[in-house]
Amino acid sequence: MAIADDKPAEDLPKKEEKAAEEPEPAEAKAAPPKSEDDEDDSEPPKKAEKPKLISIEAPKITATVRAARALYWLIWFVSIPLLFACIMVWALTPPSGVDQPGVFGWIQSAVREQPVPVGIGCFAIMEMALGAVRRRLPLSKWAYPPLREDLPPKLRSLFERAAALLDEAEQIQTLNEKAIIRDLSSKERKRLADSLDALRMSMRVEKFDQDGFEEALVHADGEIDVHLGKWRKSEAREFVESILVAVGVALLLRTFVVEAFKIPSSSMVPTLLVGDHIFVNKFSYGPAIPYTKARIWTRMPPSRGDVIVFAYPENMEQDFIKRVIALPGDRLETDEGHPVINGWKVPSCLVGNYAYDDQDTLPPHHEGDLFIEYLGDEAYLTFYDRGKDPQLNKGPWYVQPGQIYVMGDNRNNSHDSRAWFGGAGGGVPFENIKGRALFVWLSYRDTGIEWGRFGSPVMGRPKAPRGFESLQPAVDKCLRERPAADKTKPPAPPHV
Fold it and tell me: Lowest CB count within 10 Å: 24, 76, 299, 426, which one?
């Protein structure tokens, strides 16, 4: 049985009539011509060309590279500025009591009065000068990431930061390779590698794109922080490392450059007072190698007139401070307490009466004559206590090779070379010398801090002692009448 049609039979003729009424379709209209854009859309996408790169790769971090970087910083930003500062202070320091006219004389006076601040300033100036040409210095290619020639100046610091970030990532991955493979999935490692590669690409692409570079830098920094954050240095670690570096630098400075000492006795009055705290230049005669008697280099013997700190020959644990009077081969005597070297009496000029109190001595009150003494290039104050017999320990003493003889500026109240070894006298071996006195950085007594002595040079131009300012005209007169240079140097020893 055929399936019956669900349309009514009478509808069929109507449909045919309607179809007959419709006109025959005209020829199909030509399709509008395709535009060039439509043709491009229809073509399959072309593969993007690989951008051209330039070569600015930094050297791979190895032990050799680390050593070269350390050597670069040690030479150019430690040794050279330090050497420059020492040479400038040495070259600009005039003999005490000698005044040069004009601007140069003023500069010399400033250097003489404040050698350490001047040295620090010279160090900083050289640091800045070297910093300006840091990329042109030998070994700089190991210390700094290379820069593009077309890099805008404002982006240089950002570019260096990007290179340092890649350097940091490489070091972390090298030092923690196994831990990174263990803790990060392959997908995470790939994402990290892709971000680093994208940053490298943005830095090396031939036509530099600033926006693309900055975006790649931010993305890479975020990926490193997320995936390598546990191996990056924390702020606390950087803080601790900074403290350790500062302590290390301080120890190096104390060992080789400068050290602080306190004056416990009145043997150097009026130059130094009880309670003065001074800095000592340990570089003056060559930096000593710790726990040995050797020096990296030596500039011995010290000059006559130098004020030095040294280990007391009869007790090496005790430090003394005195003035150098006689050198190896010299014959030393005293006349009324005044030194006589090789038969030549050290010239001096009477300033006037001076007095001071020291409760640790008997009697506590000391009064006597104040002189300016001229020895070599130095002019300095000396005190002769009238209450002590100057004829004691008058010599002669013969200075042995490798030694010097020293005396305190408080000539009749000083335990020095004249009185050592049971009164027989003795010298200071070169290896006992720790350095030359610089200036007073603190002066503290029972009455409190004496701010007026802050910065006073130990070997500077002589000034009237505090409380005896009325003697300053006499001091100035003595300095104006300073003997000629050839009259302030002793003759050679008779056997030379």
Answer: 24
Strand 348-357 with 276-281, pairing: unpaired
Burial (CB count within 10 angstroms: exposed 0-12, middle 13-18, buried 19+), residue 476: middle
Chain position carrying tokens 């990329």: 135
Query: Could you give the CA distance from residue 250 to residue 247 in angstroms, rounded to a whole number?
Result: 5
The pTM score is 0.61
At residue 321, the pLDDT reads 95
The residue ranges of the chain whose pLDDT is under 70 are 1-61, 94-101, 112-116, 141, 144-147, 149, 234-235, 238, 390-393, 495-496
- For residue 452, the model assigns a pLDDT of 83
Residue ranges per domain, the chain? 63-231, 258-487
CA angle 233, 237, 240 (to 5 degrees): 150
The strand pairing partners of 339, in sequence order, are 334
Q: Is there a catalytic annotation at residue 267?
A: yes
Q: Could you tell me how far CA 275 lies from the centroid of its own chain?
A: 29
From the list 267, 414, 417, 456, the catalytic residue is: 267
Three-class DSSP category at 466: coil
CB atoms within 10 A of CB 214: 14
Cα separation, 88 vs 118, whole angstroms:
9
Residues near 104 by Cβ (< 8 Å), separated by ≥ 6?
Answer: none
On the question of a cis peptide bond just before residue 363, with omega within 30 degrees of 0, the verdict is: yes
How far, in Å, are 27, 29, 43 from residue 33 at the CA level? 18, 12, 16
Per the listing, tokens 């490298």 go with 200
Give the integer Cα–Cα distance in Å for 97 and 433. 25
> Do residues 117 and 279 touch, judged by C-beta distance below 8 A?
no
Residue 86: both structure tokens together = 């020492």
Phi and psi dihedrals of 462, rounded to 5? -60, 140
Torsion angle of C-alpha atoms 242, 248, 252, 257, degrees rounded to 10: 40
39-92 confidence digits (pLDDT tens): 444 555 555 556 665 555 555 667 787 788 788 888 888 888 888 887 887 777
- What span, in angstroms and rounded, lies between the C-alpha atoms of 136 and 134? 5
In contact, 336 and 407? CB cutoff 8 Å: no
Per-residue pLDDT, 399:
94
Tokens 């602080």 belong to residue: 260
N-terminal to C-terminal alpha carbon distance within the chain: 153
User: Of these residues, 96, 202, 266, 322, which one is catalytic?
Assistant: 322
Residue 258: HSE in the Cβ half-sphere, 13 Å Cα cutoff: 18
**258-262 and 403-407 strand pairing:** unpaired
Q: Is 159 exposed, middle or buried (0-12, 13-18, 19+ CB in 10 A)?
A: buried
Fold exhibited by the domain 258-487: Umud Fragment, subunit A (2.10.109)
Distance of CA 276 to the CA centre of its chain: 26
Whole-number pLDDT of residue 48: 52
